[in-house]
Design goal:
433 residues, GMP Synthetase, Chain A, domain 3, binds zinc ion, 4-stranded antiparallel β-sheet, binds adenosine-5'-diphosphate, alpha/beta, Rossmann fold, 9-stranded mixed β-sheet
Length: 433
Amino acid sequence: MEIFDSYELLDRSDLEELQAVRLKTTVYQATASNFYRNRLARSGIKVAHINHSRDIAALPFTTKEDLREHYPFGFLALPREKMVRLHASSGTTGSSTVILHTQNDLNVWADLVARSIHAAGVRSRDVFQNMSGYGLFTGGLGIHYGAERLGCLTIPAGAGNSKRQIKMLEDFQVTVAHIIPSYALHLSSVFDQLGLDPRSLHLRIMLIGAEPHTQEVRTRIQDIYGVKAYNSYGLSEMNGPGVAFECVHQNGMHLWEDAYLGEIIDPVTLEPVPEGIKGELVLTTLAREGMPLLRYRTRDLTRFIPGECPCGRRHRRIDRIAGRSDDMMVIKGVNVYPMQVERVLMSIPEVGQNYLIQLEREGYLDQMRVKVEIRDEYFVEDMRQLQKLQQKIAGLLREEILISPKVDLVEHNSLPNSQGKAIRVVDTRNKQN
Ligand code: ADP
Ligand code: ZN
């Protein structure tokens, strides 16, 4: 099967026509929920006003706080009895939010995931190991049903237990793995401990996502495992994985615009930014009946990549997520994103697979301390050599982030590893004094 889904092949004008029809239907359905009935009545918007996808600009935004305030059922557009599944966000930035799905919603979602992984080159003959946590986190069941829908032999490995993961990869001759990028780096050190070569597996594709990561991390994963690694973007409020995905060209993630209407706004003025400029991604569900969301502010920073992709899909591509708008650290008045630090660290060959940023207060001054794991072969007794390495890392970081961090070199595998999304920043500034 070369082409999975006819929605994938729509040209721009058919796609936009479909979006207009689906947007109108979505707004109509949304008015059945308590939240939107009130919100839309207050803003004076009528369904009749929505005739084009650009009419979305008249609608109010929806935020994570709205979801929290109307937790758990305030957004349901159909009776609770029609809902068959509940998922929650990982709670990375506070208390989690829940999304409920009808059977139809689950079918649409499985199709989107199947389409996504197919675009990245996965085929029904593949053996697919899903190393995401199962349970409320959407990376488990969300990816699982999509891989099955495509016809892969799907292994619900779940998260953690690295030795068992490696045994499954070997025993079942796994060809495709879905894995969180920070865990992929960690797993490689378990291969080292066991004296096994990750390149000797049957793996050919890794699908990496669920957390911000840099091109440098992708390159490392590809080199370590001898695979192609594709970026996968999703959030539980928009179902989960299968919102935007890279195709084999690895040049940005196609946002599935038949199912999601995407906008990029300036997070301060809330106005759209010009094409190609970075801002906050705002998404509207176009194919969800149980719990439609209008203009949901993802807080994820990205941009639409101008131009067309050589694969022929006309769904626009979003760039690698630069971070969340609330990830920004302000240190000595300078704005720094964790991904800037990662980009520098992961391009230094002596640096191992993990790092941690600590924000501290020294007197009245903020200080950034970066703990960096160093590869065994460079972690030598010679203090002068280590000092030189420390200065080199500090210098390269200063060039990128414009402040001087303190750099601690630590041994391979000594920093905490999480089975889920990595915690890259620990802020102790308010706990000191
Ligand atoms: P939480 O917001 O609590 O982490 P989710 O599990 O729903 O809950 O995670 C969705 C978030 O994960 C996204 O909003 C985004 O910040 C991050 N994310 C998901 N995929 C990617 C990706 N490919 N690149 C960067 N960040 C991602
Ligand atoms: Zn493409």
